[in-house]
Amino acid sequence: MTNPDSWSAVGWNGGGGDSGNTTYAYAICSGNNINISGTTVKVRFSEVSGPTSATSGATVTVGCGQNDGKLVSGGAAISGGSVTTTNFTGPGSPGDHLNGSYPSDSGGSPVADGTTTASYWSAFTHTGGGSSPNTYSDAWALCADDGV
After folding, report:
1. Which region among 5-19, 27-41, 72-86, 120-134 has the lowest average model confidence (pLDDT)?
2. Is 139 exposed, middle or buried (0-12, 13-18, 19+ CB in 10 A)?
3. Considering only CA atoms, which of 60, 47, 75, 58 is closest in space to residue 143?
4. What is the torsion angle, in degrees rounded to the nearest 10, for the CA atoms of residue 32, residue 4, residue 24 and residue 63?
5. What pLDDT digit, counting tens, does each position of 71-93 carry?
6. pLDDT value, residue 26
7. In whole angstroms, what is the distance from residue 78 CA to residue 66 CA?
8. pLDDT tens-place string over residues 119-138
9. Which among 84, 75, 92 has a CA at the least distance from the CA of 128?
10. What is the domain partition of the chain in residue ranges?
């Protein structure tokens, strides 16, 4: 997707009964009198199957392409799959959870504090104590090119 105009978040409690849980979505916006006419924003997405077996994890990584500009942010989910073409569905088990969503290297390892050249975003997901059929791990990278 090129030049998106919104960002969404979906909260999933998984049957834990907590009522005070909060889900947030953060947007990156420009200010007044800032010329962004030459800027292109590109969203890159990757989805992998899993984790599906009890107490297992999965990592998914997506990066900015050569002509996409710089990584400016990212996002992640654990889902029922196909989140870019259908309505969001929860993962296969109520114990599934997203453990991390972070800038990374191409292998999915977190980058060091102060890194200015990260160009990948990764997510780490986990099933919890039960098996979780039809579960997928999703990651998005938000890339911006200012044309310079």
Report:
1. 5-19
2. buried
3. 75
4. -110
5. 999 999 999 988 888 888 888 88
6. 76
7. 27
8. 999 999 999 888 999 999 99
9. 92
10. 40-145
Longest dimension (CA), the chain: 53
Would you list the DSSP string of the chain? Answer: -BS----------TT---S------------TT---TT-EEEEEEEEEE---STT-EEEEEEE--TTS-EEEEEEEEEESS-TTTS-----SSTT-EEEEEEEE-TTSPBPPTT-S---EEEEEEE-TTS--TT-EEEEEEEEEE---
Calpha distance 2→147 (Å, rounded): 14
